[in-house]
């Protein structure tokens, strides 16, 4: 029993600490905005849920956390959506936050300089026809200029406010099972570091899956780095195949 308990503890530690840390680092390399915005959303949700619960909380949310209320849960969720839109709009204007961290062969070092992708450039969106008709009466523009990332931030904020707190519920159940109040006592009045980051676990996984599913595309640089791993004869074969394809589509002029 003791050996299997240690075995289980090892796997839980790897899942919670190592895996989540790995995913967070991967998110950072996609651009600091993919790290700062989700983390800020969780922090905002925590704070605003406490504020709304403190002033308006009456209905208990879950038995694992008796102090959490539905009023705090809903108020924190609404505040997180508004905060997510605001911080995303501000950060999209600074290339330092949106550029991926990549190695530059020209500079010989890691760099965060790039031309922001379409995700971080203002795009005009047409409003729904029913709303356009109403605004047209008052002479208001029927299009809106917005950063596409701001729309993606809505998905992140909804997840952080609806599903994110369940990381905290899991931690609360874990502490209750072992009859402890906090994971540590590093931060006076708040417990340990683990107590402050319990909601971040699910968020890191979601952001990484979201980037892989809806955002990430293969760039020429990434494809080239993979091609360079091929054997010389395979690289030459790929070159001739690509050249033939470009010539057939009249993209590359045929040699005379």
Molecular structure report:
Helices cover 62% and strands 9% of the residues. It has helices spanning 2-29, 33-56, 70-91, 95-98, 129-137, 148-162, 165-177, 193-196, 200-215, 220-227, 232-248, and strands at 60-62, 65-69, 102-104, 109-111, 123-126, 143-146. The strands form three sheets. It has a two-stranded antiparallel sheet with strand order 1-2. Belongs to the CDS family. It is found in: Membrane. Its EC number is 2.7.7.41. InterPro entries: PC_trans (IPR000374), PC_Trfase_euk (IPR016720).
Helix content: 55-70%
The secondary-structure class comes to mainly alpha
**Based on CA inertia axes, which overall geometry fits?**
flat
Largest sheet: 2 strands, antiparallel
**Strand-residue proportion:** 5-15%
Number of helices: 11
How many whole angstroms does the radius of gyration measure? 24 Å
Mean pLDDT: 84
Strand segment count? 6
Spatial ordering of strands, largest sheet? 1-2
Ends apart, CA distance between termini: 78 Å
Succession of helices and strands: HHEEHHEEEHEHHHHHH
Low-confidence stretches: none
């Amino acid at each position: 029993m003791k050996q299997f308990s240690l075995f289980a503890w090892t796997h839980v530690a790897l899942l919670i600490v190592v895996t989540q840390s790995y995913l967070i680092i991967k998110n950072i390399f996609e651009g600091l905005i993919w790290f700062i915005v989700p983390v800020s959303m969780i922090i905002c949700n925590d704070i605003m849920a406490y504020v709304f619960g403190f002033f308006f909380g009456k209905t208990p949310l879950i038995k694992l956390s008796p102090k959490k209320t539905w009023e705090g849960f809903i108020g924190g969720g609404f505040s997180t959506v508004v905060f997510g839109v605001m911080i995303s709009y501000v950060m999209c204007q600074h290339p330092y936050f949106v550029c991926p961290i990549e190695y530059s062969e020209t500079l010989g070092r890691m760099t965060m300089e790039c031309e922001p992708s379409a995700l971080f450039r203002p795009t005009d969106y047409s409003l729904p026809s029913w709303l356009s008709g109403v605004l047209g009466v008052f002479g208001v523009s029927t299009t809106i200029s917005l950063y596409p990332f701001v729309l993606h931030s809505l998905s992140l904020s909804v997840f952080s406010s609806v599903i994110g707190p369940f990381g905290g519920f899991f931690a609360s159940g874990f502490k209750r099972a072992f009859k402890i109040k906090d994971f540590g006592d590093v931060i006076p009045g708040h417990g340990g570091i683990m107590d402050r980051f319990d909601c971040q676990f699910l968020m890191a996984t979601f952001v990484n899956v979201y980037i892989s599913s809806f955002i990430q595309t293969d760039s020429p640089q990434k494809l080239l780095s993979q091609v360079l791993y091929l054997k010389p004869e395979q690289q030459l074969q790929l070159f001739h195949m690509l050249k033939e394809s470009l010539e057939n589509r009249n993209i590359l002029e045929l040699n005379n």
